Amino acid sequence: MSIVPALAGPLPEAGVVAAALLAACALVVRSERARAAAAGGALVLAPALLLADVWDSPQLRFAHRSPLAALALGLVGLALVGSLGALMRRRPALFPLLAVAAVPFRVPLETAGNTANLLLPLYLVVGAAAAAWLWDVVRAEPAATSAPASRPGALEWTLAAYLALYGIAAAWSPDFSKALQNVVFFYVPFAVLFVLLRRVSWTGELLRRCLLLLTGLALVFAAIGFVEYATKTLLLNPKLLVSNDFHAYFRVNSVFFDPNIFGRFLVVVMLLLAAVLLDARRPRWVAAILAALAVLWGGLVLTLSQSGLVGLLAGLAVLAALRWRPRRVLAVGAAIAAVGVAFVALAPSVTGIHLRSFDRLNADSSGRADLVSGGLELWSERPALGWGSGSFARVYRDRRRGSAAQAVSASHTIPITVAAEQGVVGLLAYLALLAAALARLLAGARGVKARAAIAAAFVALVVHTLVYAAFLEDPLAWALLAVGSALALAPRGGAPAAPERTVASGTVAA
Q: Cα(7)–Cα(122) distance, rounded to whole angstroms?
């Protein structure tokens, strides 16, 4: 008798809660041994839960017909994880570089009747790094592995609370499979990614290498976007190709499934480069950065991502505020925003945004106005605890009698999605998390180039989620928080290396 089908009934709900709690513990416990054990337990439990959920799906017919071949394939995967983990143990600097390289790449796979774009390369890197960490912990003396790590702060506790609440709220969700997939594919591996990146010693040289790697990837992706636009073809997402056929414009997505997520990635890289540009002194570096920014800007324009443009402006405002007087920057920003709002209100024929008619506004915003109003209605019906994690698409379709094609995975406004799914409790946890994250990243970031760049990129990402989707479902958010935390909490005393290699000194630059 197979053990996997036996996991039906109430056990999956308990398993999701357990996986979320283990990931939360990996964020906040101080013992090195306990953190590693929690992270490893979460990474083992998550795929087991997914396997139980999709055991009877067509995707696993191969495993039913040829269990030995499926077992052999699983052993090959474990061997790959172990081999990569052993390589990381010999070359510790390899992990952050591989993690950065893997963040953009998504592989479309069929799961439970839906197409999911999974970060399989990143899962491999996280699994290998976690295996290497566990191996080191197991082989070390108990006294060494039980020594407390840095004390978890408000950011770690609010992240842990958010994860725990999401897992608990999955228990009453009408779309439990969606909640399970979010925990398995996003929250568990990304929480472990945060812990692993937080442990890295982020020297100036390592930061430079990661930025060069990100820039190179972004330039390649932008070039792919240019080819897509020139040939009017897309690598992924046939639905987008159909949508392009019905509009005068053509949106590109490069290796990303969604043009807006592609635009978000470009915005993050552009802000990191802009921070370096502010202090660059060598003419060749200035010219190279300007050329890269021009190419990336062209790629962003071809995505036609309005949310990306708004996020870019927000990130640039943060960079300016951290470099010059914040009051002056806020005044200029408020003036620009006021002019923009007035222009939208007074010239709807030019902007294509009609504020006087809800139907026209809904059409101009590609249905987002209706999603926002519908999300608020769902929240008003269950304001305390919401409808349950991962439930927005199904409940929105059922309550508003929409079609499956009309429903989406979120309201395209993360606070509303959180409020509808976890109620006011979840909304308060989300706001507390934002406050803790901004406090961690912004405090003391003035004059520290690397920290200012990461803070600006994170703010841009948060603003992007206010008009789109995917906050903690995006590994970029966790990576920025982890690296920003490592820089913010890095010791400034002791006997550092050369000043230009010291992260905390603020001289990390080209």
A: 27
The secondary structure of residue 8, as a DSSP letter, is -
Angular region, 367: left φ>0, alpha ψ -120 to 50, beta rest: left
Instruction: Report angle CA 31, 34, 35 to the nearest 5 degrees.
Output: 85
Instruction: Say how far apart CA 486 and CA 489 lie, in whole Å.
Output: 5
Indicate the residue type of 31. Answer: S
Sequence-separated (6 or more) residues with CB below 8 Å from residue 359: none
Are the beta carbons of 489 and 504 closer than 8 angstroms? Answer: no
- Residue 110 pairs in a beta bridge with 115
**Which pLDDT value is given to residue 5?**
40
Question: CA angle, 77 as apex, 76 and 82 as ends, to 5°?
Answer: 95
Q: Which residue has the tokens 């976007």?
A: 225
The contacts of residue 277 (CB under 8 Å, 6+ apart) are 286, 289, 290, 293
DSSP collapsed to 3 states, 340-401:
HHHHHHHCHHHHCCCCCCHHHHHHHCCCHHHHHHHHHHHHHHCCCCCCCCCCHHHHHHHHHC
Query: Which pLDDT value is given to residue 232?
Result: 87
Rounded CA separation 440/65 (Å): 52
Between helices 414-442 and 154-169, what is the axis angle to 10°?
160
Cα 327 from Cα 398, distance rounded (Å)? 47
Low-confidence residues of the chain: pLDDT under 70: 1-11, 55-64, 70, 110-116, 141-150, 241-242, 244-248, 328-329, 332-333, 335-370, 400-411, 491-510
Separation CA 491–CA 504 (nearest Å): 8
Under DSSP, the state recorded for 289 is: H
